[in-house]
């Protein structure tokens, strides 16, 4: 996936993952890869998590792990939920506009 395109959506995608389930960084990376974001690594995701924390969209706290060291779990804040709702609407509008221009994508090209 083109990195400039990814920059426009990754915050919303990560917030959506966190909204659905309080989670930690490695789980977020695995969820992203499982859903087609193959280039995402922990080295890419952790700075994004720090940025989202600074903006007040998420908070993190350490929890004991049954299978290893403590993990920092992230959860979405009210401000993050509001941003995510705005993201959904903006993405929907953008997706519709792009689809109007390019229509169905011919896979044979």
TrEMBL record:
InterPro entries: Metal_resp_DNA-bind_regulator, Tscrpt_reg_PadR_N, WH-like_DNA-bd_sf, WH_DNA-bd_sf. Residues 14-85 form the Transcription regulator PadR N-terminal domain. PANTHER family: PADR-FAMILY TRANSCRIPTIONAL REGULATOR (PTHR33169), TRANSCRIPTIONAL REGULATOR RV3488 (PTHR33169:SF14). This is PadR family transcriptional regulator. It comes from Anaerococcus nagyae. The lineage of its organism: Bacteria, Bacillati, Bacillota, Tissierellia, Tissierellales.
